[in-house]
Amino acid sequence: MGTIENRSLHALVDAAIEGLPPAAQAAPRSIVEIGSAHTVVLLDGTAAVRIGRDPATAAAMRKRQQLVDSIPESVGFILPRSLGPVVEVEGFSAVATRLIPGGPCPAGEGDPGQLQDLLGSVSSIATEPIEGLLTEPLVFCGGADWYRIQCEEVLPRLDQDVQERAADAVAALMNLERACDVFSHGDLAGHNVFWEGNRIVGVLDWDLASRSDRSTDLACIGAWNGWDKLPLIAGSADVRRAAVRRNTFRLQQVAFALVNGRPADEIGKAVARANTWLRERL
Prior knowledge:
alpha+beta; Phosphorylase Kinase, domain 1; Aminoglycoside 3'-phosphotransferase, Chain: A, domain 2; 5-stranded antiparallel β-sheet
């Protein structure tokens, strides 16, 4: 897996903002470690540049930005729309996007009414016009192959005393009854949802957008904003389905590390977190 040197990172930013106004090009830069796959460079008060941490991600980045740019403004919150094309420098890719104000709310917080509106707005996005831009559910931890990866590669790495309850959690998700598929963000919580005070103003990181059911995003909201809020946001059937999904979150993180060839120590840490969560919560 490649890494971006500081010189290359700033060369990527320079290329991504080449067409932006002089004020943006001259703005002070700050590097933010946002997610496992991307680094974000903020241009003070003007724009954000999203950079793929791994080489050869340009095609996927173009597809994701096309998706974001295709979501109607009527969705009701700010989107990180493109301010220029996806560029490539030395095999790495970057794109300048609209800067979203505010920031994530602390874990366990967030107005339930705002969260309910957010879930409703996201799930109401029409999927037909953007069908070709969506990914498959659980793509980050194996996609259509997720169940085999869990059974053959994740479960054997867990401590013996939690393997049975982990297997039950995986089987429950595999056997979850079908529900009406809608647009799903895929990671609708935490650092991807920006607030100003008690109001949600924008949503970042649409890489995992797919057709799934409401419990996919509901589980993410519950895991970050508090499970006690879910009965105020959705019906009991959706909450039950969300719990089935939540019970595999730590296992999905192990699969993500394996699928993406992460270093052994990172995989080991993901396994340790899964062991602890399974003992304490299931």
